[in-house]
Amino acid sequence: MTEQAKVPAIRFAGFTDPWEQRKFVDFVEASGIRNKDNLQLESYSVSNDRGFVPQDEQFENGGTMRDADKTAYWIVEPGSFAYNPARINVGSIGYQSTRKNVIVSSLYEVFKTDRSCDDRFLWHWFKSSLFTKQIEMLQEGGVRLYFFFDKLQKSEIWMPNVDEQRIIGQQFDQLDSLITLHQRKYDKLVVFKKSMLEKMFPKDGESVPEIRFAGFTDPWEQRKFVDFVEASGIRNKDNLQLESYSVSNDRGFVPQDEQFENGGTMRDADKTAYWIVEPGSFAYNPARINVGSIGYQSTRKNVIVSSLYEVFKTDRSCDDRFLWHWFKSSLFTKQIEMLQEGGVRLYFFFDKLQKSEIWMPNVDEQRIIGQQFDQLDSLITLHQRKLELLQNIKKSLLDKMFV
Q1: The pTM of the whole model exceeds 0.85
Q2: Which residues of 353-381 are buried (b: 16+ CB within 10 A; e: fewer)?
Q3: Ranges in the chain, pLDDT < 70
Q4: E strand or H helix that includes residue 351
Q5: Per-residue pLDDT tens for 235-264?
């Protein structure tokens, strides 16, 4: 390795010394203590994304396992690392940051570092592609691969002095805190939306919702879809080279070459059987509508979708955005469950949609409800994008701040 490669692409001001290549055996030691007295300490597991997690949060049977004989378990002191040697390749490693001793399964490897290593620096290095490469080089086994502690000891890492390690670790800790903050905001908004979907549409047996906007007092009307929807797909009989779309479970309408790897090759195929979908139309997959595969065509151009889809429009008595959000509620899920048909695979064709029922207010109230949920979706999307941006920044820095 050249002298230039012994320092990372990004460094903090004031640090100029080259980094040192070290073997883990020089600064880590096994630190698990057998729980031979079967102490009733709290049992923990290590998850791929959250690190140390109480066992009864990680597994349904955690409560029953609490009273089992755990003399073979490891006692893990604060400031220790633990990992699953069969799952370390997917990130199953944790840092014990509680202020108490806990216990983990005897399947785990448990270790501590000496004073020449800052634990937070090392923790973030474990989440980088550099550690992944060490695992790939040294893991052993047949059908299932393992990375035991002796392999970790043979691993190598480039390290600066402890002061620089500490600052790098703190920088990533701050970034993680920011990511966690936005993740919590995003999660709260998603939960809030789910709650509003339950409260702003009438529940079973009721004709008005729990929450209404001021000024609206008229009862809602129960209607069948056949009264306000009609099939609107137009066969692409002239094989027009319009952009091909698919409908995803989470994003709705998506360009086909974004959704599928072969989208590019499918672009030139004969698509005379495809449906032309005009703006302001809905489309859904009758075999996957039960998992949310429905979309609203909001582009300003005609597009085409597979002939497998059902395509329809509403009349003026229905606000499309109101209906779009109702489709994402449990009320629509119940309609699907009641009317879908088939054997191994269940289908919800357009004739079944027409038989579905929905409680609706007048169009003015529909429009306000639709706008409210659109604003909430925009806020959710904003936090999701911020979260993705921060995660991408972290991923980039993990590559640029380690050697």
Answers
A1: no
A2: bbebebbbbeeebbebbbebbeebbeebe
A3: 1-5, 58-67, 259-268
A4: helix 350-355
A5: 999 999 899 999 988 888 999 877 665 544
